[in-house]
Task: inverse folding
């Protein structure tokens, strides 16, 4: 019988690292096959198809990011229930999460497919890449149910302390993805529809592996009863999920605004920006993983009312984020031409990408630390502040790109990222610090009163 993993017991650093590393490999592998897609498309089909796929990235993040925010929000409630050892509540939360995810899948699929062309036009998508962008987008959004299924299953497993099964799922799907992407382009001579279809098939494999593990976990063995009368639980799930979903989508709006201005510059700029975005997404993964670890660790210990452990876990996760910045920031600053040349062919595109990578590499610490403090807020059941920070992030990104693009040009895209990261970090850091100190103080007072009551009872006095 499959077991769950209790993050409320044991030494903090070993248990966090045991959870962190499988998930890090999971997230890095996801990005590796994303970059492999980009390299295969760029080298196999050319810079224009690469621009078409890259042009879809911000819109894809808008839709998929919304669904990921929801499922991650649901997992906070599930982890808190598990930490509190409330098994009936845990099962009802899982059941309600499944029902809500099904409803959301239908809505998001319909919206994304219907409005794909108008949004691409709104983003000033060049006629040169419009048809490929549409083809790629229709396939990805048509198979959105596979992405949501995997995200939900993986989120539930992580909430229960299992980061190994999602890793196994991604290993299998990554190998499948890379091999069949190459086959689709170099053997069957397909266009962008090949990598898009392979991505959907890979997600089906990932979801199936995670679901098979979930079925073996006794703590979430569901019956028809657990799917009934869950209105209040659904509201609680949405209270965590909706702000996180909105945060992701608001961030995506800012990214789409940047994409709009980049597209207006020309296809060469779109290609360079696409390659840079892939690298940023890859190099932030360790810190992003530290954030997810912080969320699961905080949620379980918050449910168990072990606030001291949350503070200990925060220090460990911040140390991981710092190491991440030093290592990957250095790679971006010292080897920008090598990185750019792996994906791009034209000298203009490579030069543009080099400037972006160096600037963001120097200031990447802001987004690395942001992942940890933002996830800490979410784990404490305070999703409103991450959502507000998402608004600030969007405002900062849009303001910089609108005001300075005409004067600075393509490099403004890097400055927009830097400003967005800094603004969001400030809000989440303050919120997390305030709330954690409040819980620690209340817990200290509670323990003092319990000790005083025990002493008085032993002495035969009353307080």
Result:
């Amino acid at each position: 019988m499959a077991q769950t993993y209790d993050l409320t017991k044991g030494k903090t650093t070993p248990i966090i690292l045991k959870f962190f590393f499988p998930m890090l490999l999971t997230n890095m592998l996801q990005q590796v096959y994303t970059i492999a897609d980009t390299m295969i498309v760029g080298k196999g089909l050319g810079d224009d198809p690469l621009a078409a796929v890259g042009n879809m990235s911000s819109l894809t993040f808008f839709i998929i990011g919304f669904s990921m925010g929801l499922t991650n929000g649901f997992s906070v409630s599930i982890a808190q229930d598990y930490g509190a050892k409330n098994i009936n509540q845990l099962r009802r939360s899982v059941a309600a999460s499944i029902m809500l995810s099904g409803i959301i899948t239908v809505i998001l699929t319909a919206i994304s497919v219907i409005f794909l062309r108008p949004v691409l036009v709104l983003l000033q998508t060049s006629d040169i890449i419009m048809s490929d962008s549409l083809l790629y987008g229709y396939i990805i959004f048509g198979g959105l149910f596979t992405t949501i299924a995997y995200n939900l299953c993986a989120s539930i497993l992580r909430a229960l302390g299992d980061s190994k099964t999602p890793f196994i799922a991604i290993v299998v799907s990554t190998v499948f993805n890379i091999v069949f992407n190459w086959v689709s382009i170099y053997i069957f001579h397909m266009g962008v529809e090949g990598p898009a279809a392979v991505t959907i098939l890979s997600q089906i494999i990932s979801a199936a592996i995670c679901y098979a593990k979930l079925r073996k976990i006794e703590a979430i063995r569901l019956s028809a009863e657990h799917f009934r009368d869950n209105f209040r639980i659904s509201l609680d799930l949405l209270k965590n999920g909706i702000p996180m979903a909105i945060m992701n989508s608001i961030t995506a709006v800012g990214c789409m605004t940047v994409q709009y201005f980049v597209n207006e510059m020309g296809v060469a700029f779109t290609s360079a920006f696409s390659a840079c975005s892939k690298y940023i997404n890859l190099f932030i993964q360790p810190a992003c993983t530290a954030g997810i670890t912080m969320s699961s660790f905080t949620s379980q210990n918050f449910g168990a009312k072990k606030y001291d452990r949350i503070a200990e876990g925060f220090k460990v996760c911040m140390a991981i984020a710092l190491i991440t910045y030093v290592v990957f920031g250095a790679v971006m600053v010292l080897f920008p031409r090598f990185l750019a040349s792996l994906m791009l062919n034209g000298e203009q595109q490579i030069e543009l990408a080099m400037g972006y990578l160096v600037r963001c590499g120097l200031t990447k610490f802001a987004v690395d630390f942001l992942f940890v403090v933002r996830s800490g807020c979410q784990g404490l059941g305070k999703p409103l502040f991450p959502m507000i920070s998402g608004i600030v992030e969007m405002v900062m990104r849009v303001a910089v790109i609108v005001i300075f693009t005409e004067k600075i040009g393509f490099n403004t895209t890097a400055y927009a990222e830097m400003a967005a990261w800094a603004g969001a970090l400030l809000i989440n850091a303050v919120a997390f610090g305030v709330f954690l100190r409040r819980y620690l103080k209340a817990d200290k007072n509670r323990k003092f009163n319990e000790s005083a009551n025990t002493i008085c009872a032993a002495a035969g006095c009353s307080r």
The chain has a mean pLDDT of 88. The chain is about 85% helix and 0% strand. The radius of gyration is 23 Å. The CA atoms of residues 96 and 234 lie 6 Å apart.
